[in-house]
Amino acid sequence: MFAAFKDTLYVAFKDTLLQVLIAYFPAFTYHICLMRPERIGRAHVYLFLFSALSLLFCMLFSFMYFPETNLPFDFRLIPFMVGFLYGGYRVGIMLTAMYIIVMLMMHAWHDHYIWWSDSLLYVAPLLFLMLNYFQQSSAPKRILMLMGVASLGMLLHFIIYSLSLWDHHIQMQTHILLFMGMYATVFLCASCAIIYMMEYVREKAFLQQGYQMVWRQYRQEAQKMHQLIDETPLAVLAVDANARITAVNQMMLRMLQQYNPLLTNVDIIGRCYYSFSEEYELLSKDDFMLGRVLSGEPPQSEVIQHFNRKYLVRTASMRNQESGEIVGAVGMAHDITELSQLRAEMGNMERLSLVGQMAASITHEIRNPMAVVRGFIQLMQRKSPEHLNDYYAIVMEELDRANMIINDFLSLAQNRIVEKEFMHLHDIISNISPLLWADANMRGQEIHLQLAEDVPELLINSKEMKQLLLNLARNAMESMEPKGVLTIQTRFHEGVVELIVRDNGLGIPVAVQERMFEPFYTTKAKGTGLGLPLCLSIVERHGGVISIDSEIGRGTTFIVSFQVEANAAYEKCISVVPSPSINDTSGETSRIS
């Protein structure tokens, strides 16, 4: 009895050891694939290949306890089951098809006993049915399901083997039972070990994938934060709890490179802030505010002056969110030079605005006594000798000139709301043209009109538009010699209406062009310096833009542009009409002399 058991044990271990090693192929493959992120996408391909190889080797090295039964003992069910359930439907179908083809090649068609006695063919449909549920289950459930399938396959095999022994009149002796029990134990232990390894590898792979995903997200967020800090207009420097510099952005680096142009991040990161700041005046000016916040003081702020620039320096500590312990500090420097200048300019503008309002009020009050003075001078002129008329004319002319200056100043100073209506620029040009003709005739000059036909109506104030056109035209006439030519042109393109006033005078120097729209700036002997600023004020009140193009010796061109608003209410009011007739202006140049 003991000798039979010994022989059975020897046969079981000798013949099954190789089977166990072969059955481990799919598990090793699965481990290799899932542990390499670049191979995860091809894991099912490798799993099919090695499961198929393991299945073929198991069939190749199978053995028969009783050759006359023609029933082999091997572990082919393990690689088939593992490849099927972990590889999915495609791998399962390919494994099944390959197995049937191999069976057809190894056995004749007429050997029907081999087909109905193969327990693997009975288990395959069950694997198809449970595949979806298996893939959606947790690890413990998958282990139980696989062990159940392995146990069922082993049970079917032993039932079929027992029936085969009965058919061949072989008695079920003790050594046969011991062999079957030993074989079943090794088979189930190998199945359990392989299944556990598959689940362990799968769980570890998922953890690794999750870790890699979190790491990639962390790196992306860190890169975004680094780019954000680099692109911010603030100069940033960070230190750890030991006051060692851990980060500087590009703005801070550029500021420090004012002392040392060859300075790089490598020269800064890791150095002690206190020793490093001694080399750079910019950092020493903060009186070690970073040190104060590192010791637990609240955030510090200070305005410092450096290289004729003002900086608002602010430092704050960085704390561990869980423990509240100070783990570092950050210092930021904001260049507030322009902001300080802007505040100063705003203060000056407020004072100038107050002075302007007072001047406008005073100027308005001056007009009344001037009117009285002018009236009395007219009465005195009537009763005075004729030889004094020239003196009275001079006084009257100067009073009129003073009144004109007051009117221009009030128009410029008062930012009043004007009433507007839809009108055509050509109508305004037509109304004011007689006055322009008279001025041109007195000076011996000519006026050319070039009025486009497709100019739409604009929402404008006619009185202010007349004043704008009159000021620009008279400025142009005064800049030309006799026989000069003044051109007034209108144009419409890309939603913009342009009024162009061009002369062929001497031109304006660049230095003068830069100050032409400043109030009270003039190059004329009797000019007030209010004409062009008044034009600018009118154009801005109408939402337009005025520009100048001038060159010495080639004349000057003023271009006034009005943007046509494209809204539904405005479009209903727009009507594109032909240009009003002014001595034949149908798109051609007409001459007025």
UniProtKB/TrEMBL annotation:
InterPro entries: HATPase_C_sf, HATPase_dom, His_kinase_dom, HisK_dim/P_dom, HisK_dim/P_sf, PAS-like_dom_sf, PAS_4, Sig_transdc_His_kin-like_C. Residues 361-566 form the Histidine kinase domain. It holds the Pfam family HisKA. Its EC number is 2.7.13.3. PROSITE patterns: HIS_KIN. It catalyses: ATP + protein L-histidine = ADP + protein N-phospho-L-histidine. PANTHER family: C4-DICARBOXYLATE TRANSPORT SENSOR PROTEIN DCTB, SENSOR HISTIDINE KINASE. The chain crosses the membrane at residues 16-33, 45-66, 78-101, 113-131, 143-164, 176-198. SUPFAM superfamilies: ATPase domain of HSP90 chaperone/DNA topoisomerase II/histidine kinase, Homodimeric domain of signal transducing histidine kinase, PYP-like sensor domain (PAS domain). Keywords: ATP-binding, Kinase, Membrane, Nucleotide-binding, Phosphoprotein, Transferase, Transmembrane, Transmembrane helix, Two-component regulatory system. This is histidine kinase.
